[in-house]
Records
---
Amino acid sequence: MIEKQKIAETNIFVYKRFYSSQETLEVMKGLREEIEWKEVKIKVFGKEYLSPRLSAWYGEKSYKYSGYKWDQKPWPQSVIRIKKNIEKLTLLKFNGVLANLYRSGQDSMGWHSDDEKELGSDPIIASIVFGSTRRFLLRDKNIKNRKKEIKFEDGDLMLMGNGVQKNWEHSIPKTAKNVGERVNLTFRLIY
Ligand SMILES: O=C(O)CCC(=O)C(=O)O
Ligand SMILES: [Mn+2]
């Protein structure tokens, strides 16, 4: 049985070890090889930056994200298998995935909500992680200084449900610790 944790006061659920530690090494190898990882230029407040991680987009439709447009592209087999397993567990459907590769502790993701208009008014997102553990932080958009940290580790699946993107931001901060690679896949439904 997979343990399902509810993150208090949020509509976030974590399925612990959705993939076992025996499975994740093999899965991560497939993802490293099959995904076409890119270093992307993003635009924040009109200024261009190299985003501090590698990423890729697969989906039935194109996707615009921080001023960068990802074209539609067929899914690698390793990603399809994960998508199917997640859909079976959650009884939800996804038609796009943003993949992130954090190469070291210097790679990160700034505060944001996954609230692009293509995702509809109240997106539901399924996020899965392989490899090293990084801090996953939440910040309340309405109440100042209210933060949470979620334990989100190798093989864990996180479901961000109704209201989460509206009420919270999330981030993966940099760390000075000597951490190895971490792959994250966030499955989305694009309208
Ligand atoms: O790496 C993670 O766990 C989060 C990634 C993320 O927030 C995103 O791709 O929108
Ligand atoms: Mn996000």
---
Amino acid sequence: MGETKKVRHVLGLSGGKDSSALAIYLRERVPEMEYVFCDTGKELPETYEFLTRMEAYLGKPVQRLMSDRDFDHYLNVFNGYLPSSRMRWCTRLLKLKPFEQFVGNDPVINYVGIRADEQREGYISTKPNITSVFPFRDDGIAKADVFRILEESGVGIPEYYRWRSRSGCSFCFFQRKEEWVGLKREHPELFEEAKAYEKSDPESGERFTWRQGESLDELIAKEEARGAAGAGARPERAVKRRNLPLASVFAEPDDEPDDEDRACLICEL
Ligand code: SF4
């Protein structure tokens, strides 16, 4: 008779608030927890810094899981088609696949940080050996509780929340306009890197841009024009809220309706 495999407990950190709060919430309850972070190689520096903070709090390493091939390789495979909400190959190949490889065929309980006040579904692997559980949902933990957990732990929130509302790749196509402006200001080199991925086919005229119908240069030009005109310029909402309770910093975008334009939860939760 074969030996029964021990069940592993795995929590995937995205660098976002909910999965981080869940890790803090469960630290004592699930001491055998394995923490992982699926690293696309294109994450924000603030995310890596935050993961180091989390490791200090958890007293354990957060294992970085990377695909065996990088973003540029897959971009070639997809003939230069940048990932988009309709073609989210990045999540599948750079986040989900490394996670499933890490898990292998072991029986695993996968802890997912979906809150009690959310309607959305998380990444639930179809692999039969992975059972996803939702402790926040089960325990009635809502957004305000998440802020409290982060605050009381002393870990706080990642620095990027000053100018951006989601974790994930620096060039994530789910970014809002003002977040692209924030990327240019905070990390000009990463903005330039994102720009360098935008191409147009000289023969067909087809353009590969992060945002539908406009290049990043065009976006910036429009935003600067808006700013110069003083009409409708977007204030730096997150920065203005710096000294307010965490809950008010996070008044968005979680209050926006869930729709197709939301990033995969493995990237942002
Ligand atoms: S953060 Fe955005 S770009 Fe990165 S893998 Fe997730 S959906 Fe794709």
